[in-house]
Each structure stands twice: as C-alpha cells, then as structure tokens.
Amino acid sequence: MNREKLVAEARICAEAASHNLRLIRKHPEKVLPGEMIHVEGQLLQLMEFARWEKRNARRAGRALLVKRMKLLVSPIIALLPPRSKSNESAS
C-alpha cells in the first residue's frame, strides 16, 4: 500500500474514531460494563496514529517523492532515442 493511501485511510479511521468516542461518552450504557476504558484507549490510539501518519506524510521526501522523481526522470527519458521492438531487431 502506498503512503498516500495509508494516510487517506488513517484520516478516515480517525474521523470515525472521534465520532465513536463522542458517541460512547454521550451514551456509556451502549458499551459493555468494564470495557469502557479499553474502548476509549483503542479509539484514542487510532486517532493518535492518524495524527502521526499526517505528520509523517508531510516530512520531506515522503509524500512528494514519486512526483519529484517523475519530474527529474521524465526529461531524461524524453531525450533517449525510441527503442525498437524486439520483433524488429530479430529480423
């Protein structure tokens, strides 16, 4: 899975986790007795992971590496002579 997809999924999961956290805090009777601490911990951990992924994706060389490589390599490839097909070279 590439980095951009991972960040997008983490962002979606964090939005759902924050909604779920608000929901269980508003209606604690919906959660099994004794599980409230574990559920809150998991949701907070998921939200922290999403924050970490956003910060990590913005670091230099992470999210824009592919775009930079394309910008650097495409002019070089454009200057190369076109390759002949393998069928033509065998004749």
How many whole angstroms does the radius of gyration measure?
Answer: 24 Å
Largest sheet: none
Q: What is the helix/strand order? A: HHHH
The helix content is: over 70%
- Mean residue pLDDT: 76
> Which of globular, elongated, flat, extended, rod-shaped describes the shape?
rod-shaped
Helix and strand composition category: mainly alpha
User: Termini separation (Å)?
Assistant: 42 Å
The number of E-state strands comes to 0
Q: Approximately how much beta-strand content do the residues carry?
A: under 5%
Stretches where pLDDT falls below 50 for ≥5 residues? none
- Number of helical elements: 4
Structural overview:
It is a single chain. The protein is an all-alpha fold and 91 residues long. It contains four helices and no strands. The chain has helices at 3-26, 36-58, 65-79, 86-90. Helix 1 (3-26) packs antiparallel against helix 2 (36-58). The chain is rod-shaped and about 70 Å long. The model has no long low-confidence stretch (mean pLDDT 76).
Task: List the topology elements.
Layout: H1 3-26, H2 36-58, H3 65-79, H4 86-90
